[in-house]
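@channel sequence for tomorrow's demo:
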Amino acid sequence: MNNSIATDELTNFHRAVPPAHRDDPAELISDYAPCQGGAGVQGHWPESAPPRVLLRQEAGAPAKVAAPRTRSPHSRAGDYWHFVSGFLRRPLIVGAIAPSSRRLAEAMIPAIDLESAGTVVELGAGTGAITQTLRQRVGPRTRLIAVELQGGSAQRLRQRFRDLQVISDSAENLRHHLDRLGCRVADCIVSGLPWGSMSGPLQDRILDAVLGSLKPGGLFSAMAYVHAGGFPSSREFKRKLERNFGQVTPTPIVWANLPPAFAYHCR
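structure tokens (generated this afternoon):
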């Protein structure tokens, strides 16, 4: 293929892909599969139907187009891309460069009976890695509520988990939202928030909201990153947990997580 044809192919492809997807690798991988060697210039996208692909055909036959490939908005690759882009934009709020692993999600949720729980709350649900595990543990009548500050992540959660109540707001307003929803207390609160990246006053406000929302004897699980263990804010957060809970138990470190992390189980 000569250079002029190659240039025309690239121009046509770029023109065919909607602008919103041109810089999103996850979108390109999911929506725009390479052509299968159809008539004309190989790899050329018909401008009349950019999200479709050419099929192999006999020479001289009219071009055939396949139905668009169905893209799941909840693919793990899509979750990683969404998470990484969020981290690059707001690293102190997102706190991690990748979604929590399945092993960390399991460590975050203690071996307690959640099937009979009335209300379970997740703070900082992100892309839903821990949410998925929680949904497998709660009972059919349990109200599962996710609090997520980032609007884009909150929308993905709503699309992924139709039965999940998603609150797009700061976790410090948890008590207000439980009152609004008619929930008196939560049986269990699981936090994926980056406590080590927070200021002391913000830690206090969110922890006050947790203490004001958790039922007596309820369990609070808080994620902590190993690399942030030496931060003054992390050490202060642990002291606050020990002051407010009678029992604070760290789980084993999940080294396979990125970054390695563990959880505090607090009662």
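heads up for whoever presents: Strands lie at 119-123, 143-147, 165-167, 186-191, 214-225, 248-250, 261-266.
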